[in-house]
Amino acid sequence: MTKETLTIENITLTLERKNIKNMYLRVLPPNGNVKVSAPSFISDEEIVNFIRLKKDWILKKQRYIKENNIKAPLKYDNGEKHYLWGKEYTLQLIKNDNVKHVLLDKEKSIIYLPIAKRSTIEKRKKTLDEFYRNQMKIAIPPVLDKCTKIVGKTPSEVKIRNMKNWGNCRYHDKRITLNLNLAKKDIECLEYVMIHELCHLIEFNHSKKFKNLMDKYCPNWKEIKKRLNE
Ligand SMILES: [Zn+2]
Fold first, then answer.
1. How far is the CA of 206 from the centre of ligand 1 (A)?
2. What is the pLDDT of residues 21-33, one digit of tens each?
3. Which of 31, 162, 188, 215 is deepest in the core (most CB within 10 A)?
């Protein structure tokens, strides 16, 4: 296999020539880098023509990645950046059968992720999610205590889930569910979501009345909300 960097039609790309039958083109998040894999026998001219033909598509794809802030999919590999309570950590994999859970070095900002033999991305994600869930379990009680005093309402229980929304409040049984990914954001975000859900125990919608409650109990909620969804 050979690898080189080229610029064709103002597009910078990495070209890999290898023992394959067809030409492949990829535009990768987060920077819109262009990667071309080509069969060894194909001429430079054919590659130039191929890029010319695909130019509009490449530019469109790059624009889409930039405008929608598309991130590279997580691989849970060594050196990858992960977050805990708004702080950046570097992931370090450990292959040790005696270690079953994630270990944290706050000083060095390292998250040690234990991996088993034949570990997959899904398994690594599961181990890390379990860690985030535990972090949430530790963080919630004091936040809940603080926020129930502010809002003057108490939920029947607080559950943690991996879900689409940041939080949810069930009207009929007053149960609040929080997204475990809140452990990646700073603690103020957790407080904001908690207050938001507690306010639903007073006002079960996002009406003007609800927003007035938010203004009262969490004056900078708009700023926190923006940060949360970045
Ligand atoms: Zn809501």
1. 6
2. 999 999 999 999 9
3. 188
Side-by-side strand order, sheet with 11-18:
2-8, 11-18, 33-39, 24-28
166 Cα to the center of ligand 1, angstroms: 9
Please, what is the angle between helix 121-151 and helix 208-217, to 10°?
90
- In the chain, the domains with their CATH numbers are 2-67 (no CATH), 133-228 (3.30.2010.10)
How far apart are the C-alpha atoms of 178 and 40, rounded to whole Å?
Answer: 52
> What is the tens place of the pLDDT at every residue in 141-179?
999 999 999 999 999 999 999 999 999 999 899 999 999
Structure tokens at 10: 């103002």
Q: Give distance in angstroms: CA of 72 to centre of ligand 1.
A: 29
Tokens of 199: 């306010």
| 121 Cα to the center of ligand 1, angstroms | 32
Ligand 1 centroid vs 41 CA: distance in angstroms? Answer: 58
Q: Give the residue carrying structure tokens 């609040």.
A: 176
